[in-house]
Every structure is written in structure tokens, then in C-alpha cells.
Amino acid sequence: MMFFMDLTNCKKLAGEKAASLIKPNTIVGLGTGSTATFFIQKLVELCQNGLKIQAVPTSENSFRLAAAGNIPLIEINTITAIDTYVDGADEIDPHKQIIKGGGGALLREKIVATMSKETIIIVDESKQVKRLGNRPLPVEILPFGHTAILQQLQLLGYTGVLRHTPNKELFVTENNNLIYDVHLTTTQNNPLFHHQQITSIPGVVDTGFFLGLADRVITAFLDGQVIIN
Ligand code: A5P
To answer: Model-level pTM?
Structure first.
């Protein structure tokens, strides 16, 4: 029987599926964003029913959700490895190359992904793209000298906008940095090259390209299917 859902339900399905894969007595990285929220909410429920884990959040928001649900949290600087990290994505291509950072948490997310033995990406079908770049590529930069940093990025062909809040103030990340959202052109289609070129500029902290980091991808479709690749 066919049944149809909306994208919010897809996010919930993907998040809950990922929660069902979490093993007892492991350290879990908690992603950030609307899809990761469904994962954390399900994890809260599982912990209330006896699942024993410790978790590391990638943002204040995920910290608050987990703490409110009594998920035991572990201070990141007391560990060097995480068992499983679960998070959403802004875009994912057929090679599991990803753009993240729509919510501005890309740097902590990438640190946690790099520390993790397994990274599980949870997405609804709208996040699938043939080629990365339909949405802006977030680039985290230091506030110090940012006018010159932006000029260097623009000279290399990276046009974009400095991210602002809805109140038109500069968006500041939880690491006290700024985000420059780059509009990639169709010819800028080599993520590794562009990641390396962008991060070679002093003052650029990181890009939202997550390359070679996704181990498993859980995709939920509007027809109710959930596929794990
Ligand atoms: C946060 O900085 C992002 O990397 C999010 O993980 C990503 O944007 C996915 O968010 P949604 O699940 O809300 O689409």
C-alpha cells in the first residue's frame, strides 16, 4: 500500500531509524538541526527505557535537548574517540559527499565526525542532489581581518554573502566566528579542490564540505520507504 508523508515526517523516520541502531554502552555524537532533533528525541525515549549511553552534543541546542531529556553527557575534552555520530545534512550527492552548516554548527560537527568511528547521516529525500552546490557552501571565518579574508575569497572566485540573523545582525557561531555563504557555480564542481583552496586562506577555519566522512546514510522518502546505504 502506498502512503504519502511530508518532509518533516521523513526527517522523523530517518532520525528514529538511526536511534534504533545505537548500541548500549557507547559514546554517541549528537548532531544539530531539525533532523538531528528527531534523532535526539528518540534517543531520550530509548534512554528512559533503559538504553545506557553517553553523548557529546555538537551545539548548545543539542546540548539543551539532551540535557532536558536526561541523556548522560560527556565532556568532549575527556575523550578522544566517539563510537557513533548521527547528524543531518544540507545536501548529499551519490558519492556521500556532503554540504553541512546551514545551521552554523559545521565546525563542531566536523570535529565530532572526525573523532567518530562511524558517522551516520540522516536525510529526507529532498537533500539528495546529483552534484553539490544547489545550496550555499558555508565557510567559517575568523572575525579578525574578515574584510580582507572575504576579499581573498572573492578574488579566487568565491562569491557569496556574510550570514546575518533575521534581525540583520552578523551571525556569530558558537565558536565566535562568522559564516560566509558561498554560491558555488556549476564549474566549481570539485569539492576537494575547493575545500583545499578555500581553507588555504589564513583566517578561514573550515568549509561545510564533509568529504569521506559519511559511513552510512539513512534516507527517508515521501512514500514511506527508508533506505540505508
Ligand atoms: C547544522 O549546522 C547543519 O549542518 C545541519 O546538520 C544541517 O543543516 C541539516 O539540518 P536540517 O536537518 O535542519 O535540515
So the answer is: 0.95
Task: Name the active-site residue from 60, 109, 118, 140.
Answer: 109
- Residue 41 CA to ligand 1 center (angstroms) comes to 16
Q: Give the pLDDT band of residue 2 (cuts 50, 70, 90).
A: low
Q: In the chain, what is the greatest distance between 2 CA atoms, to the nearest angstrom? A: 58
* Nearest alpha carbon to residue 76 among 100, 60, 61, 55: 55
Q: Is residue 109 flagged as an active site residue?
A: yes
The per-residue b/e assignment along 20-53, b for 16 or more CB within 10 angstroms, e otherwise, is eebeeebbbbbbbbebbbbbbbbbbebbeeebeb
What angle do helix axes 34-48 and 60-68 make, rounded to 10 degrees?
A: 20
152-169 tens-digit pLDDT = 999 999 999 999 999 999
Q: What spacing in Å lies between the alpha carbon of 102 and ligand 1's midpoint?
A: 5
